[in-house]
Specification:
heterodimer; A: Rossmann fold; 6-stranded mixed sheet; 5-stranded antiparallel sheet; 33% strand; B: MetI-like fold; two-stranded antiparallel ribbon; 75% helix
């Protein structure tokens, strides 16, 4: 049973929930956000991904209302939110530190926002019960935050921020304080809750795996700019810059010059080595400097010279990183360049065909690599 | 064994410097005044042996405690001290809380300086600081000169030798004891809690009452006790800044000891004051313990 793809960003008719229009934010001389325009659509799970100091948190704090843009406007449902203080925005935030009120019980924490809306007691009770059920916290309602575990605290924070049924939920590094195993479970739980409630989520994270897992679209940020905003698959397979290719996952970048050849380009990258070939729709001038980005899992490694591949390089195994399910080989080319190749360890380790210092062939298909401008 | 010694040290300290003096005072309060050195009877005569101890115990009675109930000076002094201590504590809180709040919200590099400014007065003798308030508050003092100079008043205000001067003195002296615990409570507070409160629909003011105040509660309680307990027995400030009508138990105590040389009655006054203070001291200890439990 096929589901219709959820891709409002490709639909010119779709009305975005949030629109950034030329938004700039400066702190003194420092430009945290540099003239950014982009849209976030209803029911999206939008991830802002980048290293610390890239401006992703500032972006989120502007949405929450704790910072105001220096220039430009942010529209929520078509309305400029600049004059609306944080306590009147239909936006709630889940804080990185969770910011649970230590003097209140789990129940009171979740009810906190509802009470501010002056709802009657019965509807508050019903809503809190609903939230406790959603986050599986029923037994902990009367505990104080210091009496529950980290994972439970994280769920209280989520329940509290969802209780007011915001149009937009902001999550600031929501899983940062959890250990790896719990984090994975929680990622799926988060997606589940997002789907159940139909709320638009914007998540800030520096963990690319987390962003790729949960988000419908990922915006990779660097120095106050969104470098690329796209689906996780496209971000990974078709990065638009060396920065994105390098930030997401592992990659080998080979610098060279392009020469048009058939439906792609031949890349001259080192003297004495055969040129590489890439099929691409992008156009490059003859002799233009370019970068070839190739993911390690797309590089095949073999002892014998492979047949029928245009991209073939001979090298020596410098190092092997054994990760259990996969192994990453660092292969040194004759010119000193190191290329990463990854293989799934489908056979037991003792049967591994290669070892350190072995001479091997690396090869990949014409479409495996991505050609990026210099 | 080493643990036993470690525990023994504070207990010996308390025994020698608190319990023994208290027992001596208690004993004197049960004695009768006499013109001699020391000015009370009975005195313990150990040379007489068992008979001496028996005679000594027979000489002790609760006469002085009964005497205190017959003269309304004493209970009025206790009540008046209580009133002055309560009002001073409330005023210290009203003045100290905003100062502590300002300190806790000041930029990081300012905080050590501000803290220093709060503690700085302790480097000068307490007596000199109270004396200097006499210079400020007297009829010809700086305050009156300033107010007359600014044209706000034409006749000098009488502040010195009134209860107002006592309040000013107590609040001034004990303010750091209010500021420091409140500051330490506020400083530990996570700033994102206030943002969370705002995010959930609080105005800044409601966030203050619903988050900041409850979270600084233990600091407020500690500060109030630290001001209230010494203020109730205060003697120097009322005798220097207060008037003849300022009635405080510390002053009564001093007069009994040094003017009347009635050590037994003075000791009785002290013992009752201690009994009154035991209640807030126990409450204070319980608050501290509860806080430790909540943190631990």
């Amino acid at each position: 049973m096929g589901q219709t793809e959820f891709e409002p960003w490709n639909d010119p008719q779709a009305k975005p929930l949030i629109q950034f229009r030329g938004v700039t934010k400066r702190f003194g001389d420092f430009t945290a956000i540099d003239n950014q325009s982009f849209d976030i659509f209803e029911q999206e799970f939008f991830a802002l991904l980048g290293p610390s100091g890239c401006g992703k948190t500032t972006m989120m704090r502007m949405l929450a209302g704790f910072e105001t843009p220096t220039e430009g406007t942010i529209l929520l449902g078509g309305q400029d939110i600049a004059p609306i203080p944080p306590n009147r925005r239909a936006v709630n935030m889940m804080f990185q530190s969770y910011a649970l009120f230590p003097h209140l019980t789990v129940w009171e924490n979740i009810a906190f926002g509802l009470k501010r809306d002056r709802l009657d007691k019965e509807s508050i009770k019903a809503r809190v019960a609903e939230m406790l059920k959603l986050t599986r916290l029923e037994q902990f309602a009367s505990r104080k935050p210091h009496q529950i575990s980290g994972g439970q605290r994280q769920r209280v924070a989520l329940a509290r921020s969802l209780a007011k049924a915001p149009k937009l939920l902001l999550l600031d590094e929501p899983l940062g304080a959890l250990d790896a195993k719990l984090r994975q479970d929680t990622q799926f739980e988060l997606m589940d809750i997002q789907e159940k409630t139909g709320t638009t989520f914007v998540i800030v994270t520096h963990d690319q795996e987390e962003a790729m897992t949960v988000a419908s679209r990922v915006a990779v940020m660097d120095h106050g700019r969104i470098v690329q905003a796209d689906t996780p698959a496209r971000i990974y397979e078709q990065p638009n810059s060396v920065y994105v290719a390098d930030f997401i996952g592992e990659v080998t970048i080979i610098d060279g010059t392009a020469t048009p050849e058939g439906d792609g380009y031949e890349i001259t990258h080192a003297e004495g080595l055969p040129p590489l070939f890439v099929k691409t729709d992008k156009s490059f001038a003859r002799g233009q400097a370019c970068h070839l980005a190739i993911r390690p899992e797309k590089v095949a490694i073999s002892a014998e010279k492979p047949d029928g591949r245009r991209n073939m390089l001979r090298g020596r195994i410098l190092d092997i990183a054994y990760l259990g399910n996969i192994s990453t080989y660092l292969v040194e080319l004759p010119n000193g360049k190191i290329v990463k190749a990854q293989t799934a360890n489908t056979r037991r380790l003792a049967n591994r065909p290669f070892t350190w210092e072995d001479e091997v062939w690396l090869s990949w298909s014409d479409t495996a690599a991505v050609l990026l401008e210099g | 064994m080493r643990r036993a010694i470690l525990i023994l040290v504070p207990y010996l300290w308390l025994l020698a410097l608190f319990l023994v003096p208290f027992l001596i005072v208690l004993k004197i309060s049960l004695s009768d005044a006499e013109l001699s050195i020391p000015p009370y009877t009975p005195k313990l005569d150990l040379t007489a042996g068992w008979a001496g101890i028996k005679e000594f115990l027979a000489g002790l009675d609760f006469e002085n405690f009964e005497f205190l109930t017959t003269d309304d000076l004493y209970w009025k002094a206790y009540l008046s001290s209580l009133q002055i201590a309560v009002i001073s504590t409330v005023m210290s809180l009203l003045v100290g809380y905003p100062i502590a709040y300002g300190m806790a919200n000041a930029p990081d590099h300012w905080r050590p300086t501000l803290m220093m400014l709060v503690i700085l007065p302790f480097w000068t003798s307490f007596l000199i600081r109270v004396y200097s308030w006499m210079g400020i508050l007297s009829t010809e003092g700086y305050l009156n000169q300033l107010l007359i100079g600014m044209g706000l008043i034409s006749e000098p205000l009488t502040i010195l030798n009134t209860n107002t001067a006592v309040y000013i003195g107590i609040v001034y002296t004990y303010l750091p004891f209010m500021i420091l615990p409140v500051y330490s409570a506020l400083e530990r507070m996570d700033a994102s809690l206030l943002e969370a409160a705002e995010d959930l629909g609080c105005s800044r003011i409601t966030a203050f009452w619903l988050v900041t105040v409850p979270l600084s509660r233990n600091g407020i309680i500690a500060g109030c006790f630290l001001v209230f307990i010494p203020a109730i027995g205060e003697f120097v400030i009322p005798s220097l800044l207060g008037g003849s009508r300022t009635l405080m138990i510390g002053k009564v105590l001093w007069e009994e000891f040094f003017n009347n040389r009635d050590w037994p009655v003075a000791s009785t006054v002290a013992v009752i004051l201690l009994l009154i203070l035991i209640i807030p001291i126990i409450l204070f200890q319980r608050n501290e313990q509860k806080q430790r439990e909540a943190e631990g």
